[in-house]
Amino acid sequence: MSVTAIATATPSATGSFRTRRSTNGVSRFKMSVRSGSVSMAAAPMLTKLQQDCATPLPVLRNVAASMSDDIRAGLAVDGGSDLKMILSYVDSLPTGDEKGLFYALDLGGTNFRVLRVELGGKDKRVIAIESDQVSIPQELMSATSEELFDFIASALANFAHKDGNFPGKKGEIGFTFSFPVKQTSIDSGILIKWTKGFAVSGTAGKDVVACLNEAMDRKGIDMRVSALVNDTVATLAGARYWDDDVMVAVILGTGTNACYVERMDCIPKFQGEFSPSGRTIVNLEWGAFSKGLPLTVFDRDMDAASINPGEQIFEKTISGMYLGEIARRALLHMAEEGSLFGKSMPEKLSMPFVLGTPDLSTMQQDGTEDLHTVGSVLYNVAGVESNLSSRKIVLEVCDTVVKRAA
Length: 406
Prior knowledge:
- This protein is an alpha+beta fold.
- Among the domains are: about 40-55 and about 295-405, Hexokinase, domain 1, CATH 3.40.367.20; about 90-230, ATPase, nucleotide binding domain (Nucleotidyltransferase, domain 5, 2-Layer Sandwich), CATH 3.30.420.40.
- About 35% of the residues lie in helices and about 20% in strands.
- Strands 6-5-4-7-10 form a five-stranded mixed beta sheet. A four-stranded antiparallel beta sheet has the order 3-13-12-11.
- Helix 4 (about 145-165) packs across helix 5 and helix 9 packs across helix 10 (about 355-365).
- The longest helix has 20 residues, at about 55-75.
- It is globular, with a radius of gyration of 24 Å.
- The N and C termini lie close together (about 10 Å).
- This is Phosphotransferase.
- Belongs to the hexokinase family.
- InterPro entries: ATPase_NBD (IPR043129), Hexokinase (IPR001312), Hexokinase_BS (IPR019807), Hexokinase_C (IPR022673), Hexokinase_N (IPR022672).
- One of its GO terms (biological process) is glucose metabolic process.
């Protein structure tokens, strides 16, 4: 999946992006003209980035073999590998016959959702879905456990009050929690650690279901969690509702993870009684995987500056929270050492995470002849003035980082 490097940086007279107001009130971009070309020093830096990010077949085979070894070691004993291989206590999956109203809370990362779903069985399937999505304020990602769960419970209360009653088993709700948890039953689980940029105090080692139930009590909400699942397990269950051949689920979002259906007799560390199905879902927590991954100096620097250095390496190389930051660090290096954007150094480009993964995706998909979209994102997001030759290199950087993740 390597990307061919740009051999030369062609001079261009196009440059910085400005905005002006059109007669109908819609903002439009206007390009101011400046002369000059990108320093040729940036081109070999791009080539080095592409080489370090390359994932030829032998590298992929080595990564796959290392992950297989970690899977087996993690199934044998807790702590046997970087992969937690967490047992989900989910040993039966939807059949498509389910009917009724169901409530769920999905805490997936920087956002969470509260949902009410009406199912109609195989004939009607999903009849209706109502949901609210709420962004978690940045300060709550490093607040106390009580502050975070009180905020979540308040949003749940606002959603519940729209309905006024809970048909079926009163007050039961499913809780999808997308962080590493050691489950002790279908409705309890101990938080192992926060990931995805969270550093909430007072939660590690505690039952997250108890934390939510207590927050709901404080907010006067007459509800209790009846099932706790990881987002990968929830994804697998949701897919199985439609297709009974589904055996694996993968999450690629703010973070990344995977789960699959495993035979209980293939899990040496499992000590309980086998379920009638003889199978259970295992949550890999593969974001913590690290062996044999192609890493750049920008990956290592970003990891060293993170709140959890040395952890979640696989997640940091392929997930949505980090791709924009990897590209930003590469572009900053090219600007400082290779004069990618001329002699001036854009101050905003030095700000960590100023360039997001959505910005990266937008630039990567630019098909215009003058790479107008690349230029506008650079100027509006990072305060960077660019010409066509620098935008070509920026596009290649975006393509390289995204394709390694793919």
